[in-house]
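Recap from last week: sequence in, structure out.
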Amino acid sequence: MLGRTAEGTAEAVAREIYAQILSDGTPFIVTDTATAELVKVSANAFLATKISFINAIAEVCSAAGADVRAVADAIGLDERIGRRFLNAGLGFGGGCLPKDIRAFISRAGELGASEALAFLREVDTINMRQRTRVVDLTARCAGFAVGVARGGSGSRLQAAIRRCTGLAGLERCCQLQLQGASVKVYDPKAMENSRKVFPTLHYADSAVIACDRADVVLVLTEWEEFVDLDPFALGNLVNKRVVVDGRMCLDTAKWKSAGWEYWS
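Predicted structure tokens:
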């Protein structure tokens, strides 16, 4: 805990730094250190839980033949739930949410409250399973068995389109490359940072170049540039008209009408 003088100084500095957004009505909460730390990790744990929840529901929808987007839209109308971050897809990645929920579980154990956060282990498990599901689906679409086939025309994934939000997409691309696929990556905003984090991937200068002679096209984040791609024109560049929509952001009917095999 900070002393009274230090606490007052810290609050004054924080208010000065965030003066603009505070003037716009953003709430400012002053609390003790333990509570502040729990606010941060609790928020991330809740967000991770919401993401894994809808991905678990997506698995059930797939088995039942239901539309997970319609389910999300319907339950999102409930103000107690809300629609934001209720999109089935790749799950969460990067260095924040996975790290935070695992550290939260560990710290709760140290405090003697491990059972209270036992559910977060399943949240993490669901998220890890999403990675395997995306990689396995892509491998099947490309015509090779993950962990078995190496090389040969039937085991080459030629292109992936993505943007790196949370690094979830990059991590999947690297998994595919480790399994023997040839992966090309394009991101309209984060190419420089992507190269620093995963330098072994092949990077293209545009979405069109990334898709050239592709066996499978992966859309792993929902940049407007990707959503607006012309599936008819793109179909003339690829080896196979197969698209994996990892964010469920494409116009399914439009892509299917252009002759694409659509997976999400």
